[in-house]
Design brief:
This protein is mainly alpha-helical and 363 residues long. It is built from 15 helices and three strands. The chain has one domain: Orthogonal Bundle (ABC transporter involved in vitamin B12 uptake, BtuC). Strand 1 and strand 2 form a beta hairpin. It is globular.
Length: 363
Amino acid sequence: MKSVKKTRRKDFITYGIVVIAFIVMQALVMTGHISNSLKNQLIPICVYICMAVSLNLVVGVLGDLSLGHAGFMSVGAFTGIIVAMSLQNAIPSGALRLVLAIAAGALTAAVAGILVGVPVLRLRGDYLAIVTLAFGEIIKNIITNLYVGVDGNGIHFSFKDAMSMGMGLDGKAIINGPIGAVGVTKLSTFTAGFILIMVILFITLNLINSRTGRAIKAIRDNRIAAESVGINVTKYKLMAFVISAAMAGMAGALYGLNYSGLAAKKFDFNTSILVLVFVVLGGIGNIRGSIIAATVLTVLPEALRQFSDYRMLIYAIVLILVMIVTNNPLLRSVADRFIGSLTGLFRKKPASQTAEGGADNGK
């Protein structure tokens, strides 16, 4: 019971950090005490936090290396754009269209996760990483050659050119091949990003602390031992992979509807590596660390823009220092003690401990 209470307390601290950060940033935005560059980064920060948390479910909790997370993000992004744009006349409310777009992005990304996960999760180590990387590149190339439009008769698709879609005179192109999505109505907001973070945190933390989460962690620690006690390895690995893909699709939909135009080349190998960097630097399996790392490393390049000649050098040095601290047991223990001392200042001792302390002092 004590361990459960401790885990719940950590989860509520994580929720509290996100809520406080949202309130502070909203106050800064409303009072105008925030630069336009940082204001424009608020939604991407929310998206990358969601991506880092979702990937940590696979890399940290399940223990598998996936390099195709940008593929699930792109599936969610372009699905969300298609849904939001095709419903523009039927549903005037932008907030409702955003919710439907995020839900559709999660659904299609989950389907893609099933299609990829069923054959791929039988692989391990480098082979799994290579195949997921190939999946991300395949998705990017498919979307690059995809043409989607909408008219009074519905949605039209083509892999040849825009003319072959056969739209009417009232037709409108949504995805235009290599150009990508064009003329997108921006629906994403910082508040929607905050709500999405809270939803993904709720799903992830409750999954980790559930019976299913314990089974997934048992597979990560020792696959053979997990199989020997009757745990269905394929089932739980596929479950974690699909849930992670669905959350990446939700983040992708929010990201896609934050820009008036979006090309498939944005979701390349570098995006998958960037999200993996967030997970590694924040601590593999550490959800709170992923949130902090995604926030800092998204803001840092823009904050160093005034040092245009040296900002990438400084960025690389910060990455190296963080890597040294997180992988050095001595430095990590010092940081944990420092954080523990800070949280201890705000934690009230129970009356029983106070009484025992007084008895010990009397002795």
